[in-house]
Amino acid sequence: MAKFTKKQRFYLYQFCADMIKADLPLYDSVVKLHT
């Protein structure tokens, strides 16, 4: 796994938080991003 900078990690957590707030399944979102 690649090392993230603090800034990248912040955006990643922010993205995950938004997904949870939007009540979207995280797995689904990840699958859609990779297809």
Characterization of the model:
The chain has two helices and no strands. The chain is an all-alpha fold. The chain has one domain (1-35). The longest helix is centred in the middle third of the chain and has 16 residues, at 6-21.
Element-by-element helix/strand order: HH
Count up the helices: 2
Outline: flat
Structural class: mainly alpha
Give the helix level as a range of percent.
over 70%
**Total domains, how many?**
1
- List segments where confidence is low: pLDDT < 50 over at least 5 consecutive residues: none
Write the layout of secondary structure elements.
Elements: H1 6-21, H2 26-34
Q: Care to give the gist of this entry?
A:
This is Type II secretion protein F. Helices cover about 70% and strands about 0% of the residues. It has two helices and no strands.
Keywords:
35 residues; 2 helices; Type II secretion protein F; mainly alpha
